Recover the amino acids of this structure.
């Protein structure tokens, strides 16, 4: 029986609560499929500052490098809003991505039929929605130098190189080959030189994929298409900041930000985290939606450990729980009963273990 080492970084706010449910589901996977996981828990974000005055402590750095995959909760704490940049919880997240070189962030967005009425969009716009945002993760404004802030002036720098664009473009085109064969590359080439380079490089890479269709789209048009005709999108390829914004906007399609997983991939261990933030106002109340974290565990199995059968069992269990009417507070319509974080985890764990799921496709 092979053993996989999972570095668990629960993070801040609701992070520990939802990640705990994802770990429970992985333990159920271990039991059902006879896979051994070694879970090692380490601090990050505000939790890292609390124990080591560092949002990504040295012990955490060492552990993630040695792991097979990283399961990460959200980071962020309003108590650090005025802290020096190096001590802000988000600095730990950026440092983690840079440390592991995870340059491609994959954020799948699909609408479960049982949740069509949970979205503020009309149901007819949600039919057939199944898209993947491929976001470049280690370049752009979030990492560019120089950067500075003074009392009356602040500077951030947007930088991309052709190799950075090429490698993430290949990820998007490879993904499209196994989907519907369309890449929508999002930029702002009408006003930004960096976007002009982005468009040129992506067009060149597209020549290596004659079986995939490429379309270019300005970011403002892409934002409108996400809510007006989301089913027209398959793989959305974009740079760091645009991808951050658009993938959060796409959460409205699934009914809640708490539904969405993500995988950040590079040459070494992948980082797997739900898309939502730390939501400190919800922490400790057993109301947060753990499905994004549990779906993230499925991505960890599929993309990080190449265990597609186990990943499919988790996805099927999530769908079965929703079909049976399980709703956390964010998904419940007015007057509809809801269940807590732990109870949703319990139901999905039970469904993973149910042998009846083995016959589902």
């Amino acid at each position: 029986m092979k053993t996989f080492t999972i570095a668990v970084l629960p993070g801040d706010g609701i992070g520990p609560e939802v990640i705990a449910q994802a770990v429970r589901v992985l333990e159920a996977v271990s039991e059902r499929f006879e896979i051994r996981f070694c879970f090692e828990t380490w601090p990050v974000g505000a939790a890292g500052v609390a124990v080591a005055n560092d949002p990504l402590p040295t012990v955490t750095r060492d552990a993630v490098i040695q792991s097979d995959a990283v399961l990460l909760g959200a980071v962020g704490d309003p108590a650090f809003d005025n802290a020096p940049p190096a001590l802000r919880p988000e600095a730990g997240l950026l440092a983690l991505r840079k440390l592991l070189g995870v340059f491609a962030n994959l954020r799948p967005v699909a609408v479960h039929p049982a949740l069509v009425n949970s979205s503020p969009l009309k149901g007819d716009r949600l039919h057939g929605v199944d898209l993947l945002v491929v976001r470049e993760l280690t370049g752009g404004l979030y990492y560019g130098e120089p950067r500075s802030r003074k009392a009356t002036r602040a500077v951030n720098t947007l930088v991309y190189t052709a190799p950075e664009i090429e490698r993430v473009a290949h990820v998007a085109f490879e993904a499209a080959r196994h989907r519907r064969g369309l890449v929508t590359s999002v930029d702002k080439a009408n006003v930004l030189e960096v976007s002009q380079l982005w468009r040129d490089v992506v067009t060149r890479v597209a020549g290596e994929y004659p079986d995939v269709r490429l379309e270019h789209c300005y970011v403002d048009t892409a934002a409108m298409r996400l809510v007006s005709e989301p089913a027209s999108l398959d793989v959305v390829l974009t740079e760091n900041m645009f991808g951050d914004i658009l993938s959060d906007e796409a959460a409205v399609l699934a009914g809640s930000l708490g539904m969405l997983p993500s995988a950040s991939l590079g040459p070494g261990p992948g980082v797997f985290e739900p898309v939502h933030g730390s939501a400190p106002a919800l922490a400790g109340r057993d109301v947060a939606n753990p499905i994004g974290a549990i779906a993230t565990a499925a991505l960890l199995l599929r993309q990080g450990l190449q265990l597609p059968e186990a990943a499919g069992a988790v996805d099927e269990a999530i769908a079965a729980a929703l079909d049976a009417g399980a709703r956390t507070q964010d998904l419940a319509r007015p007057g509809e009963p809801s269940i807590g974080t732990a109870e949703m985890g319990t139901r999905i764990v039970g469904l993973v273990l149910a042998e009846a799921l083995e016959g589902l496709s």
Q: What stands out?
A: DSSP finds 13 helices and twelve strands in the chain.
